[in-house]
User: Which sequence fits this backbone?
């Protein structure tokens, strides 16, 4: 089955933050996205899960674009 893709608004609701925060996380490399078009961004479920697992206040955050793919 294809992976679930979330809109920025849906991701913000799931994470309990403002959509502007989601765009900031994307811009800073914390959250991976799929660009559907110039004005349409979707966030894969796996990217959200990785973001949630890495974004722990007790640990140092590592931008996902700096992680090695194994």
Assistant:
């Amino acid at each position: 089955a294809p992976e679930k893709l979330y809109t920025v608004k849906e991701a913000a609701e799931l994470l309990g933050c403002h959509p502007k925060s989601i765009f900031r996380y994307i811009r800073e490399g914390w959250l991976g996205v799929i660009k559907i078009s110039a004005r349409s961004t979707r966030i894969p479920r796996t990217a959200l899960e990785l973001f949630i697992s890495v974004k722990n206040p007790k640990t140092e955050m590592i931008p996902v674009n700096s992680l090695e793919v194994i």
Summary: The two ends are 23 Å apart (CA to CA). The chain is about 40% helix and 15% strand. The chain has a mean pLDDT of 83.
